[in-house]
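Q: Could you predict the 3D structure of C-di-GMP-related signal transduction protein?
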Amino acid sequence: MFGVDVIRNWVQLLTARVPLDKQNLILPEKIIRLTLTRAKLCESIANQIDSDRKKAFYLAGIFSSLNEFFAGPMEDIMKELALTEDIYAALIVQENSIKEVLALVEAVEKAKWEEIHEICQKLNIRERCLFKMYAESINWTAKIQQSEQDSLLEKSPLLWS
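A: Sure. Here are the predicted structure tokens for C-di-GMP-related signal transduction protein:
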């Protein structure tokens, strides 16, 4: 399997790079923001329920939106990557704790209040705590994207010529 930290850093860099010229935008900014926020929220929830595997939860959050980045069915995309069995299972079919957390995160994204309540009870997470983690994940994503945009501005030859 790829080194988790290497993948994590690569994906953060890849998803945070938003071209300054919006007409040349390769990935819609909304998908980039959603992916990073989803990954961070998965990791934060993992800290509450299974902190030993928080990196796996983070990666599952990233990979859960891969079909938005690449053309093709999720199963075909997943076969190309060397993922652990539990991440693969959570993204494709089987029920496990990662899939449960992904379902919770997607319920938050879609404001499915009953589903949020049910999954929070099942995972023994207070809803108030969940929404605090969600707000922190949104802020974390905004900081990453702003930092990357600032970095691109500093390196832009147009500004210094």
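Q: Anything worth pointing out?
A: The chain has one domain: 4-152.
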